[in-house]
Amino acid sequence: MTHSHTIPHPTTELQREIDSIYSVQLDHVTKDFGGGVLGLDDVNLGFRTGGISVLLGLSGSGKSTLLRHINGLHTPTSGRVRVLGQDMDRLRRSELKAVRRDIGVIFQSFNLVGPMSVLENVCAGALGSLRGPRITLMMYPKAIRREALEKLDRVGLADRAYQRADTLSGGQQQRVAIARALMQHPKVLLADEPVASLDPVSARDVIDLLRQISAEDDLTVIASLHQVQLAIDFADRIIGLRTGRVVLDRKTAGLSAEEASQIYSSVSGMDTTAEAGERAGATTAGTQTAKSGAEAAARVGATR
Ligand SMILES: Nc1ncnc2c1ncn2[C@@H]1O[C@H](COP(=O)(O)OP(=O)(O)OP(=O)(O)O)[C@@H](O)[C@H]1O
Questions:
Q1: Which of 6, 53, 130, 297 has the least C-beta neighbours within 10 A?
Q2: What are the record keywords, sorted (predicted)?
Q3: Quick one: angle between helices 170-182 and 200-217, nearest 10?
Q4: What is the structure's pLDDT at 131?
């Protein structure tokens, strides 16, 4: 079962309004992996279009599980995941593929093909929109190669186009991975610990680049990070997870590293989302957490 009958669904018109504000919505999402492990435990989040959100939490707190629900690699045991106006678990294969094309993903390990050139790796990002595999660079249409060069220029690596990908530094490889993701023209970018393998300087460079791209392209970015200060500098909003539950949901403005770090403390039962909810309620336009579709609908209604 993937839908709880107790979740009130908003009307079509209100849902459309919610979709115009939130690219990604999780509505009472629970993922039960069995054996008493809840990967996600009643998670309610709405991610605003164009916003940058960072997931913080100890290893095993559910960050990857949350990201995997957003690109449809996991389906919830109960609750609803809605991405770019589509209920992920209601889609046919071809529809899911179409939504996934709008979702770029970057990983801690970059996932480049090392022996291939930088440019070929970037071209591969366009494969979703081309038929059949391309084995060599010349098999990509000229327009794709030109666009890939433009993307490389955008991430500052045009001069490395014909170099083997595995000869680049980690920071450069992540830039190539970003350029590859941009070939999809994504509306949402998921980044699973994108700088965990990088030195602090390269990490900040990659984060700055993501921030710039998000602003320029109105790209919704959802990233997991382990560095609290970097997260605060990067994101508009920090979401803290612990054992699959959202225990902190705050805008970064005015949030100190010390406050954000509390999610790592051993104090159980801490939940600052009530406070966040109150604040969001007071400034409806700034609402970040949609407790349910119906509540989000009410809030959206109140902004008009
Ligand atoms: N496919 C799976 N089958 C069973 N349990 C899983 C599966 N995927 C994740 N889990 C469990 O769900 C919980 C959340 O894992 P998840 O990988 O989302 O954590 P994380 O916060 O991303 O950790 P890390 O920072 O180490 O990447 C963990 O207890 C993990 O063991």
A1: 6
A2: ATP-binding, Cell membrane, Membrane, Nucleotide-binding, Translocase, Transport
A3: 20
A4: 60
The pick from 29, 59, 65 for probing ligand 1's pocket by mutation, whose C-beta has the most ligand atoms within 8 angstroms, reads 65
Is the residue at 279 inside a domain? Answer: yes
ipTM surpassing 0.85: yes
Q: According to the model, what pLDDT value does residue 133 have? A: 56
Tens of pLDDT, residues 31-67: 999 999 999 999 999 999 999 999 999 999 999 999 9
- Asked if 149 and 193 touch (Cβ cutoff 8 Å), the reply is no
Assigned domain for 208 exists:
no
**Alpha carbon of residue 214 to chain centroid:** 11
* Residue 32 counted as domain residue: yes
> What is the tally of structural domains in the chain?
1
pLDDT tens, residue by residue, 270-283: 444 544 433 333 33
Q: Are 249 and 276 in contact (CB under 8 A)?
A: yes
3-class secondary structure per residue, 252-280: CCCCCHHHHHHHHCCCCCCCCHHHHHHHH
User: Does residue 283 have its Cβ closer than 6 Å to ligand 1?
Assistant: no
Is any atom of ligand 1 closer than 6 Å to the C-beta of 57? yes
Residue 203 Cα to ligand 1 middle (Å): 24
Distance, in Å, from the CA atom of 90 to the CA atom of 103, rounded to the nearest integer, reads 17
Q: Is the CB of 240 under 6 A from ligand 1?
A: no
Residue 34 CA, closest ligand 1 atom number: 4
160 domain residue, yes or no = no
Domain of residue 82, residue span: 1-50+60-102+237-304
151 alpha carbon – ligand 1 mean position (Å):
33
